Amino acid sequence: MAQATATQQGAQYRRSVIWEWLTTVDHKKIGILYMFTSLFFFLIGGLLALLIRTQLAVPNNTVLGPSTYNEVFTMHGTIMIFLVVMPLNSAFFNFLIPLQIGARDVAFPRLNAFSYWAFLFGALLILSSFLFGAAPNAGWFGYANLTTLPYSPGLNVDFWIFGLQVMGVASIASALNFFVTIINMRAPGMRLMRMPVFTWMTLVTSVLLLLAFPSLTVGLVELMFDRYFGTLFFEPTAGASVVLWQHLFWIFGHPEVYILILPPFGMISEILPTFSRKPLFGYPFVVYSGVSIGFLSFGVWAHHMFAVGLGPVPNSVFATTTMLIAIPTGVKIFNWLGTLWGGSIVINTPLLFAAGFIGMFTIGGISGVMHASVPVDYWQTDSYFVVAHFHYVLFGGSIMAIFGGMYYWFPKFFGRMLDDKMGQIHFWITLIAFNMTFFPMHFLGIDGMPRRIYTYQAGMGWDFWNFEETIGAFILGASVLFFAYNIIKSLRSGEIAPADPWDARTLEWSIPSPPPVYNFAVVPTVTSRDAYWEQKYGSAEPTDAEKENLNPSPTTVRGIHLPPPSYYPLVAAGGLVAMAAGMVMHGGGLAISWFVVAAGVLVLTFGLFGWSFEPNH
Amino acid sequence: MARGSGWLKRAITGACVALLVVILGGCSMFSGPQAVNHPAGSNMQTIWNLFVPIFWMSVVVFIIVQGVLIYSVIRFRRKPGSPEPHPTHGNTKLEITWTILPALILAVITVPTLATISSFAKKPGAGSMTVQVVGHQWWWEFDYPGQGVVVADEMHIPIGVPIEVELRSNDVIHSFWVPKLAGKQDVVPNQHNHLSFTANEIGTFRGQCAEFCGAQHANMAFTVVVQSQADYDAWLAKQKLPATNIPSSDQLVAQGKQVFFTAGCVGCHTINGAELNGVQALGIVGPNLTHVGSRTGLAGEVLTQTQANIATWVHNPQKVKPGTLMPNLGLTVDQANAVAAYLESLK
């Protein structure tokens, strides 16, 4: 399959569709796999959210007992962060990055496939804990020593450790891939300062992933050693400081917050210029502020630990760095407003979600500044005020932007428009229900309601807002189902999308929708920022190459070299997850566990070996 | 256009009024036992005084950003015949302005923040009083050093005296939080944390563990009783006494004591001065019960303390508080009632 041509796509390869998707190394197909997988997990995470809200709707409720509730809130957080927002961002990285930089694929296509399969298998491993009645139950942050054997004797924490480790491998491989792709695979003339902001934010995110995940990995390995081999990293009676875990976790955990929000920043920076018909206001400032957020994100982790008792000096330092990080974030918001100002704004679903993002994220940003004031945080931390804060950042921020991104790029992904009329209804219901659900959590924070409690007594003054939030949550859940309906309906019968339905500015719109397997019939030459806008409206006449990309002829695309499909990434990821599953079985005392681990090692080795020696044509 | 901007003005005015209603309504609605907006302790008062100006600055930023956002989307929406917008790439003066202005606002917040951090770090000097707090899954122990007094889930302190709380954990991380009196301070195993505050209002104040600590994190509450110095002294004097002698006339109490000393309760609980056939109650795993009858709450405040509730609790603790470390000793209903009568007699 060295040669991909227009005809090959159709008739020549009639292997089963399933085989095609299992062995694909096409970044676009992998992006689509990420998208549907994480949307499915989004439904599961949302269902858990509704369980939480049901339990908390009235005082002294008994729908969920304490052990189930603790599993549900732990898995809600774990799923939404690791199985939903990260892979949804990944879906866009995969699909868009090569298209935005004028490349035919990512730098390491098979590693890319491996990342997806490792992510999927790690996710399934952690979700399978529900089948064994042992879902993780110590919070998504898994504070030691609650997670050590004396306090968590079950398999719950083991599933969490090994699920995260497998997904961590996937994330690091993927980050490496996109870093190299963006640095090395740009089309001629695509200088760094001509790259679309989404590509820029992906680059920064990749660096954050590469540097942050190892810290989590170290923490998880130490915890595993404590639980499996009797080490004493987190055993206070042996003199250990359990705060070590918190440092390791939050050195990962705070950059992680920016891993979740920087790609959405990028999406907003693409959507706003397109629908304002103006270039992004202050492009270099938006880029540099993204980069400086990336740098600063490694210097603020202890603001999650103000009440731990680190002492006045560390608390003062981290308060100051946290205040600092608000500055580049503010710069971004002002530049987005500057982009809208004086534009010719089309009010459609992507624009509405982008505007909604700015509004909601600003609220989350403001409450974030409140937490940065350490004494105020002594009150707000671990109360519902913080729950409100990070839902404004992660739902009002990340998810709103990703919804906007889905409406914006859906035509490029699938060649059909995602229905705008339903989209606008979806937006308004989401905005109202989101605020119904999460705004009153600020009030509950002032009313002194702590987080992570499975029940509360009557007479605390918490009844009304908890009940009202539950109503909001169910409306929000309904809006997500409505969105799912829109996706399914639009995939089947949505309006056929042209190559450039929005009169947009970046290179992905210069090729057909959906793009052909080789992306660009002729690798474009870039002469400015907003490369496609320049092609369309610049002074130069359209070149042959530009016309060719929009409408490829069979003669041009004959002979384009593309990486062949491969099942080795799938095999290698299978070996990796078998090792992890074997370790969980060992925690459960199963005699065959070491055989499973050994088999996993063999399969992984076989996969990597076959992968290395696979002919590339 | 004129009609359009009139509509806009009305919308903005409406939004501001709505916001004001929400804020004012908000202030009047926080009246629960853990609401922080009417502090009764020096520490929380300082926090609240720091928060209020930050809050109003936030409101200003909020109104500006949302206002510009909504105004731009409405004002600059594409209409038939809209001109092609000017392709502005940016404006360095503006960029500098909106970098420096937020930096100034943040500096205004940072300075008092740092000052407050260092003021909180100072230990209270002479005339202060120390209480050692030990977090257990899922109850609180309060030791009064030098007094020989150990109580559970109910901390008494005098008004106006600086209190130095020393925080210890017996197992996992907890967080000590009495919202009306002070901010949180985590209770970390192997680490000596402390928190100081002065209560400035007589009354009872509810507190609750604020760091997730396992199955019954939700029911790890306690009460702080702030008393006049005289009342506090009286309370302390009473707590120092050994357990009340049982009036021989009360058969149920005697029977309860019999059960308490034979069914296994003494393995975990202490009752100072109580003794039966040479057996003493000296267990330290569970709460000290010497004057348990004088307390108002039970089992981390899950239940109010009545004889009937104590009976329900000791009959089957797991039913009241699933996951609690107090085992079900298999007492009959009659035995449980008797034990409850005995404990309730320990005033």
What this model shows, in words?
The complex is a heterodimer of chains A (617) and B (347). With 617 residues, chain A is an all-alpha fold. Chain A has a domain at 252-282 and 291-495: Up-down Bundle (Cytochrome C Oxidase, Chain A), CATH 1.20.210.10. Chain A has helices at residues 6-12, 17-22, 27-56, 66-101, 109-128, 156-184, 197-229, 243-276, 283-296, 312-340, 349-372, 374-380, 384-414, 420-438, 440-446, 463-493, 531-537, 544-550, 554-557, 568-587, 593-613, and strands spanning 3-4, 560-561. The longest helix of chain A has 36 residues, at 66-101. Chain A starts with a strand and ends with a helix. Chain B has 347 residues and is an alpha+beta fold. Chain B has three domains: 2-79 and 89-121, Orthogonal Bundle (Helix Hairpins); 129-240, Cupredoxins -  blue copper proteins (Immunoglobulin-like), CATH 2.60.40.420; 251-345, Immunoglobulin-like, CATH 2.60.40.420. Chain B has helices at 2-29, 42-75, 92-121, 229-240, 251-262, 307-315, 317-320, 333-345; strands at 129-136, 139-144, 149-152, 154-158, 162-169, 174-176, 185-187, 193-198, 203-208, 221-227, 270-276, 279-282, 297-298, 303-304. In chain B, strands 3-2-1-5-8 form a five-stranded mixed beta sheet. A three-stranded mixed beta sheet of chain B has the order 4-10-9. In chain B, a hairpin with an 8-residue loop joins strand 6 and strand 7. In chain B, helix 5 (251-262) packs across helix 8 (333-345) and helix 6 (307-315) crosses helix 8. Chain B is elongated and about 100 Å long. Classes of the chains: A mainly alpha (617), B alpha+beta (347). At the A-B interface, helix 4, helix 9, helix 10, helix 11 and helix 12 of A face helix 2 and helix 3 of B.
Can you describe this structure in just a few lines?
The complex is a heterodimer of chains A (617) and B (347). Chain A has 617 residues and is mainly alpha-helical.
Rg of chain A over CA atoms, rounded to whole Å, is 24 Å
Query: Which term fits the overall shape of chain B?
Result: elongated
Low-confidence stretches of chain A: 1-12
Give the CATH class of the domain at 252-282 and 291-495 in chain A: Mainly Alpha
State the CATH class of the largest domain in chain B.
Mainly Beta
